[in-house]
Amino acid sequence: MLERLQLSLDRMKEIKAEKKLQKEYQDYFEKVVEFLLQIEENRQWILAGNLQTASMEELEIRNRKLYQDILPENYEKSYANPQYAVKIFGKEMGQFLAAVYAELRSLIVASYENDVTSMVIRMELFLELYGMFIDACEEIPADAEESKVVCTGNLPDYASLKETYFWFACDYIEDILEKEVTAQFEPKDNWAGKLMDNTDISDLRYLYYYGEYVTENEKKLAEYMNSLPEEKIALMADTYTEGYRRGFEATQKDISIKKTVNVYYVLGMERMVKKAMANFRAIGLEPILYRAPVSFLAGRRLYKSGYSGANANKQFEYDHEYDSALYLNSKFVARKLEAYKAALELKKTECGVMGGPAVIEEFGEEPFVPVPKKENLKLDEHKQKLQVEYQSKARELVNRYVKGEERSFTIIAFPTPAIGEKFVEVFDETIKLNTLDNKLYTRCQQTIIDALDTAEYVRIKGSGKNHTDLKVAMWKLENPATQTNFENCVADVNIPVGEVFTSPKLTGTNGVLHVPKVFLHGLEYRDLEITFEDGMIADYNCKNFEEEAENKKFIKEKLLANRDTLPLGEFAIGTNTTAYVAAKRLEIEEVLPILIAEKTGPHFAIGDTCYSMEEDVVSFNPNGKQIMAKENEMSALRKTDMSKAYFQCHTDITIPYDELLELTAVEENGKETVIIQNGRFVLEGVEELNKAFEN
């Protein structure tokens, strides 16, 4: 590989001197060569030991230089921007060259990890494509002794370029997925884990050791974390790791058979992470710090799943989300599934002892409103179905090797300094929310569940600008004395405390769900409206963009995951009025993560149920009643056709208390029990939930 790397580097150094292409194409290849040579220079600089001795200023300059081409102030004229590339090269060629450059930018991380293989295969692709452009030029003899290549304006066939990229993806997807699976499940090869164990995080230069983009936000967060007393760090870490342990206990899963845990976090949280790592090791779990994918071929996306730094430019991530359109076909899907299975099989022992993810989310950044561009690559209807097919079958594979009935998870969230001047106050308030009294909520929530378990359906109506009018059907319990439809959710897998939830019956679930403004997976939706017919999405719209077609496309891509419809997978009532009041007082409602926002009113998840692929696992509420509503008419299809049962997505949409006119349980005989009215809990026995409003 080192020999191949050197050959690639030598060839790239010749490109600038050759000047064989049309001016605009020559400029593209020279600019990309400059970036790739910078990657190798950075790798050599790190190998020489400079990373640990450089000043903070030097590290910052180097970090910014690596990412500068896609930063918002430079992106308008970057070849990574499809809009600019299409302007220069035309639609097909511009889209293609922008996608290639976007994939090559994943090599920043490779230079820090000394991942020569990732560098070589992508550099060789780049040189192969360059060769195709050179070959398209016409050779005109100058005399009998020599010939020279002159620019004739000829370009390589676009279909041939796409075919070259397709075969690159097919040839190397096995290596790419094996690398990802190893990083996720193999503790002895855990690059970031070793970095964390051997790094002094009191010296903030460590933030630049990852290769991720670093801003003032990450530095301020790390600085603040280092300033906290040890007891506060311990409280944060203990809440997080104990929630993970209790998740196994609550679902009666044996944590003793697990040996590893995936740790996801944002740069700056390392002091808490180090304490959490010690906690996990104390209960027999080796933490694996898994980096969110940086390659689009490996699954890079706007919403990060794994540890990550700052997002240099969210518009860049959004623009390249569907670059797979260049190579996605049935042959590639089959090859990728085959490669994924091979990678999981290679690490089947490690997969079997993985306990699941423990996630630390961040919140506080200004919500991202993407700019839709006609120049971006898109998946046509056929490719959308292929993507859905891959996601469905890939999830089945994961569930085979990391069994759903044996694994668990936990999620907790903290603000970052990007939230503004009230950062410290919001941080302290978040710790308070994460450590609320479980016993109080268990009791109040059980009272709500007792009322809901008598219902044939629940009626939800919005107030003011919210025109929700929805009827959610409940499953009929055969033995109400020992069975329940709702789970009493306290602070274990889903921190903070505060919700009761169920998988509603689809048949009979009808009406409109509406929210004037909501932020989902980092994206803003204005006047989001979803219509349900027998529990399935029948229509949808929003007012993000001027054209209705653009709004519908946005929802289909981002919320429906390119499906024609999705079921209502979850109905829940958030009970954390403390979180709601704190968000109002601190004026942070718009930046709350779903994790906390879903606890501040009733919420509705579109997609899979909360029990996806775990429907047959028996579980109980704290009062001993067995939870029965674990599937719906769609997930029940797993018994006959797995491909139709699951959707590989689950998005919670919350109606805040102040937008709620009523939430009423309606029994078969017509008796009504009002649980929430005009934004306040009115059910007898849960009055304490209103104290947050009073205070």
The helical percent reads 40-55%
- Overall shape: globular
How large is the count of helical segments?
24
- Structurally, the number of domains stands at 3
Classify the secondary structure makeup into a structural class.
Answer: alpha+beta
Largest sheet: 8 strands, antiparallel
Q: What fraction of the residues are assigned to beta strands by DSSP?
A: 15-25%
Q: What is the CA–CA distance across the termini?
A: 65 Å
Query: Uncertain runs with pLDDT below 50, 5 residues or more?
Result: none
For the CA atoms, what is the radius of gyration?
27 Å
Q: Biggest sheet: strands side by side, in what order? A: 14-13-12-8-7-19-20-21
Q: Estimate the mean pLDDT confidence.
A: 93
Number of strands: 21
